[in-house]
Each structure stands twice: as structure tokens, then as C-alpha cells.
Amino acid sequence: MSVALQTFDLCKSFGGITATDHVDFTLAKGARHALIGPNGAGKTTFVNLLTGVLRPSSGRVELKGEDITAVSREARVGRGLARTFQINQLFGTMTPVEMIALVTSERLGRGRQLLRALDRDAELVAETAEILARFRLDDIMDERIATLPYGKQRQIEIAAAFAAKPSVLLLDEPAAGVPEAERRELMAMVAGLPEDVSVLLIEHDMDLVFRFATRITVLVNGHVLAEGDPDEVARDPAVRAAYLGEHAHG
Amino acid sequence: MSEGSIEARVQRSLYAARRWHPAEIMFWLLAVAAFFLLPRQLLILNEIAILGLFAVSLDLILGYAGIVSLGHAAFFGFGAYAAGLFAKHASADPLAGLAVGMGAAGLLGLLTSPLILRGSDLTRLMVTLGVALILGELANSLGWLTGGADGLQGIMMGSVLGLFEFDIFGKVAYLYSLAVLFVLFVLARRIVGSPFGLSLRAIRDNPLRASASGVPLHWRLVAVYTLAAAYAGAAGALLAQTTQFVSLDVLAFHRSADLMLVLIIGGAGYLYGGLIGAVAFKLLQDVIASFTPQYWMFWIGLFLVLFVLGGRELIHGGIKAVVGRVARLGRRSPT
Ligand SMILES: Nc1ncnc2c1ncn2[C@@H]1O[C@H](COP(=O)(O)OP(=O)(O)O)[C@@H](O)[C@H]1O
Ligand SMILES: [Mg+2]
After folding, report:
1. Is the pLDDT of residue A228 over 50?
2. What are phi and psi of A62, to 5 degrees?
3. Residue A141 touches partner B, C-beta closer than 8 Å
4. Nearest Cβ partner of A102 from B10, B191, B198?
5. Which atom of ligand 1 is nearest the CA belonging to A86?
6. CB of A76 within 8 A of CB of A51?
């Protein structure tokens, strides 16, 4: 098994609260891995530690075998680590074209060009169009993002993360708050991500989790309660007691 | 729909943002026409052009990158003194002096940019205000260099490009300032439409997502702050050169505060707001001062309060109403 992302004894506390508690975690290359756990378990904090939004209290993060614990957020993106946010973080005044073009332009290293016109950059235009088409955003590509329906905004969250062409993609409850009908389309997009992208999905809907994941990690009070393939996790008595009890599956 | 057509639409959308609209061309033609139509107002037109350039500078950081400043006069004043001193002691050539003013202010922007990288809007307001106050006090106490409270006198400007002598009517002054404004405006317009400009908007809209999209926030902010400082320095240099005088007033707090007002009136984030705001502000100032000189600040203060409380829709309606009223008042007033 080739490793995409790994943490070693990762800890984070906020004052008295331990949000991440000695987590040793491995995301395999090309994984379809789910991270589950009750609200407040520390899932979002974990993603924030992986992406550099938060600094760990102690421990280490490695991306493709390289220590990135001290690497800046934007440099982690450059190294192939992208994420979505549980609560929409979009460029509200931009259109989907502009937002995807921005991510693409940064990936292509264009951000320091002060005088080049965006539309004259054929590579930028082509790759932006490809992302918009892939995530079916082409029909609304000229609307202001802030005015779009919530479901579309969730789609843009994923598209923007994917536009960074990551090798590791972290999805923090991508379908949270999305109406049932649109959830399916959204999860189809997640399921349709290229196989070589390693995906970590945080999700509460157990049906979606068990359909998507080949491996599941259960986080409770900041520490890993259980990890294994879906059947193992579903059978684990500690998991059933601590978590699945409320959401009994199957 | 085929891939190709989406690509074409993406290109068209990106092009639309930088296309020259007829209204823009009209705007600049009007600015040139003003030279012929208002031959007795050239001095105030020159002031408007300079204020407009200064406002474009603030728009670059406020409207595009979301950095608030209450001390933008620091760069304006620094550019003014640099250009004034350069003219007095080194060379009377206006364009060389302009470059010196821009360079000096840009350098000051670069050096002070670490102060605005972190912190809330409030800390940025305080820090920028503080820098401007420090400079103002320095200019005051370095009397041997700046002339202190008497101002920097004895500036003799050479002719622009060795061809056009400055005159007392402000003919060359206005055309010179307008030309510099136009060139720098076109450059700014180009920059905000570039990948760099897009990344500034990303930072303004959502710094968290910007960094999660690979945008190095700090370096981009340093770059735009430096650029904006150079623009403000150009405006200051133009004032020093066209009035052949620099007073402590170039660094005064009210200059920074007025500038905010200019941008609030005209609207931030589309570059023309600074120019429209400068025209409206100067007209307003002129009109109010002509019938009630001592209460000018009262009216402008009241205006500001109503403006900000009024909300966006009201502001837009308000501009139209004010512009209409100003036009009517202007027709009635004797001058
Ligand atoms: N920035 C923060 N400051 C203080 N406490 C925080 C912060 N972020 C998260 N927490 C706390 O850490 C714990 C884990 O939160 P979070 O990672 O958001 O959980 P989850 O995403 O699993 O619902 C919670 O108790 C939460 O209140
Ligand atoms: Mg969460």
C-alpha cells in the first residue's frame, strides 16, 4: 500500500478541549476513505490540521512521505492537497468562471502575472472550461456565486477544490444541508472523481458513507475509536455503542 | 453542448470583464473636452484629476484587496515631498520627479506593508493612521529639509517633455495630470483584470478560501500595497509639481479621511468609483463652500452619516439626486 497522507501522534487542544488526541492516521493512495464520528468529534479540526489552517499542538503531518507540518496552507495546495469546507467558503462576488479560473491560474503559477489578460491564456481557459463542464456548472457560469442556490454552491465548493488538481482531496461534509434530491447528484460527482485522487470524505449519512468508502475511520472525542473496512467497522461493538447506535445501519 | 463551446463561453466571459465599454470611452472624452469647455476651471480640474488618481490608489487596496486605510495620505505626502525636493535639489524635469515620487512612496509602502498583513480592519485603520501621523510629525520637525509649517517653497518646475511650460491658468497642469492619470489608470485597469488582480479579489472575498486555493496572501498584499503606495505617491508628486509647493497639509489626517469619502461616494472595486467620487466630492465641496464656507465640514459630515446609514440602494439613488442638485445649483450660482 502506497501512502498519500499520514499523521503521526497528531494533537490539538483549544484551551481545555482536546479536539485531536494522538491521532495516527494513514490515507492510502487512491483511497476512498470516510471519516465519521458524532458532532464535535474533531473531524473538521483534523482537516484544518492537515491543510495548515490550524497548527498542531504536537505531532506531524506527512504528504507523500514529506513532512509538511510547517508548510504554509497555500504551499500545501501546490503540493497537491486540497479541501472543501463544511460551511461554504466561496468568492461571493465572483462568477463560477472567475472562481474556477482563479484556482486554475494559481495552480498554473499565473498569480504573479500583473499584465496578462485572463482570456488570452489558452491553457487557463481550456482547463477552466473542463472543470466547469465536469461539475455541470456551465449553465450558471456567469451568475454571481452569492446569488446561486445552496446546492449549486456546494457543487462549486467541490469543483474549486478539484480545480487545484489535487492528489489528495479532503471533503468536509460536502452534502451537508443539501436537499435529498440534489444529494444524489452531488455524491455522484464525488464518486466520479478520478481514481488516482485519494479522497477523505467526512459525512454523517451512513448510507452514503457505506456506499462510497472502502475504508472507515471513526473519530470520537478527538481520538480514533476504530478503523477498518466498512463491515469491520459496522460490526465493531465499541463503534455501535459510541456512534452507530443512533444511526443503526442496515 | 460540446467542450469547445464551453471553452469559447469561458473565454468570452473572461474577456467581457476587461472590454472597454462605450461609457468608459465617453468618460475620458469628457475629461478631455473639459479642457476646452471649462477654460477657467482648469486649476480645479487639475485638483480633481489628482484626487481621482489618489482615489484609484485607495481603490486598489480597499476595493480590490479589502485593506482599509485611514492613513493613505502618508504615501501621497511622501510622494509630494520626494518630488518637491527632487525638483528643488536635483532636476526640474517633471517626469523624472514623478518617477522619484512614485519610487519613494512605493518603497515606503513596501516597508510598511508588514504592518497591514495581519489583524482586523480596526488594527489596519489604526496602524495606517499611525504611520501617517508619524510622517506628518516628521515633516513638521525636519524644517531644514521640508520647510516645516511654512511649506516647501522655491520649487521651479521645468517643462513637460521639454516642450510644455507650466502656466498660471493650469492648462499644462491639467493636461499633464490628466495624461498621467490616464496612463496609470489604464495600467491599473489592466492589472485588476490579470491573474494577479483576480487573486486580490479572491483575498478580499474570502481569505480562507483564497489560501485554500493556493494564493499566497502575504505576498499578494505586499505587492498591491506597494503598488497602491506608488500610485498615491504619483498623485502627491503631481500636486507638488503643478502647484510648485508642498505644505504639511499633504500628510494631514483630513486628506486620508476625505479620500475614504471619495471612494464611498463613487463606490469601491471598479476603479471608476474613485474618479466619479473625486468629481462629485470636489463639486460638492465647491458648491457647499460657495454658499456656506464655514460650515463645509458640517455638511460633508452630515452627508457622510446619511450616506453610510442609507445603505447601498439609497446611496446609488442619492448620488443621482446629489449630482442632479449640484448641477442645478451650479447653474444658479453666479460663478
Ligand atoms: N477554533 C476553535 N476554538 C475552540 N474550540 C474549537 C475550535 N474549533 C473546534 N473547537 C472545538 O473542538 C471540538 C471539535 O470540533 P470540530 O472539529 O468542529 O468537530 P466536528 O467537525 O467533528 O463536528 C469541539 O468541541 C469544538 O467546540
Ligand atoms: Mg465538522
Report:
1. yes
2. -120, 135
3. yes
4. B198
5. 21
6. yes
Does this complex have an ipTM over 0.85? yes
Q: Where are the domains of chain A?
A: 1-80+166-237, 96-164
- CATH code: domain A1-80+166-237 is 3.40.50.300
Ligand 1 site: residues with CB under 6 angstroms? A 14, 17, 19, 37, 39-45
CB B217 within 8 A of CB A53: no
How far away, in angstroms, is A93 Cα from ligand 2 center? 25
Contacts of B209 in chain A (CB under 8 A): 85, 89-91, 160
What pTM did the predictor assign? 0.90
Check residue B103 and report its DSSP letter. Answer: H
Q: What is the pLDDT of residues A81-140, one digit of tens each?
A: 999 999 999 999 999 999 999 999 999 999 999 999 999 999 999 999 999 999 999 999
Summarize the confidence of residues B204-231 as an average pLDDT: 97
Question: Would you say residue B30 has pLDDT above 70?
Answer: yes
Grade residue A248 by pLDDT with cuts at 50, 70 and 90: very low
Over pLDDT 90: what percentage of chain B?
Answer: 63
CA distances from B145 to B88, B136, B152, B241 (A): 11, 13, 8, 17
| Nearest protein CA to atom 2 of ligand 1, as residue | A14
- CATH number, domain B21-332, options 4.10.320, 3.40.630, 1.10.3470, 2.60.40: 1.10.3470
Do residue B11 and residue A89 have CB atoms under 8 angstroms apart? no
The confidence score (pLDDT) of residue B149 equals: 84
Asked whether residue B173 carries a pLDDT value surpassing 60, the answer given is yes
Report how many Cβ contacts below 8 Å link chain A to chain B. Answer: 147
From A250's Cα to the closest Cα of chain B, the distance in A is 37
Alpha helices by DSSP H, A16-172? 43-51, 73-78, 96-107, 122-134, 150-163
Question: Any residues with CB less than 8 A from the CB of B188 and at least 6 apart, and which?
Answer: B56, B60, B231, B271
Q: Are B14 and A119 within 8 A, CB to CB?
A: yes
Q: Which of residues 200-239 of A touch B (CB under 8 A)?
A: none
- Chain A hits for B210, Cβ within 8 Å: 91
A129 interface with B at CB cutoff 8 Å: yes
Ligand (nearest to CA of A37): 1
Any idea what DSSP says for residue B152?
A: B
Give dist(CA A142, CA B185) in Å, integer: 26
The grid cell for B11 is 473565454
What DSSP string runs through B159-172?
-BTTTB---TTSHH
Q: Domain extents for chain B?
A: 21-332
- Residues of B within 8 A of A160 (CB-CB) are 209, 213
User: Which has more pLDDT, B332 or B174?
Assistant: B174
Name the β-bridge partners of A224: A219
**Who wins on pLDDT, B302 or B47?**
B47
What is the b/e burial string over A114-139, where b = at least 16 CB atoms within 10 angstroms of the residue's CB? bebebbebeebbbbbbbbbbbbebbe
For residue A217, is pLDDT > 60? Answer: yes
Whether the per-residue pLDDT at A230 is higher than 60: the answer is yes
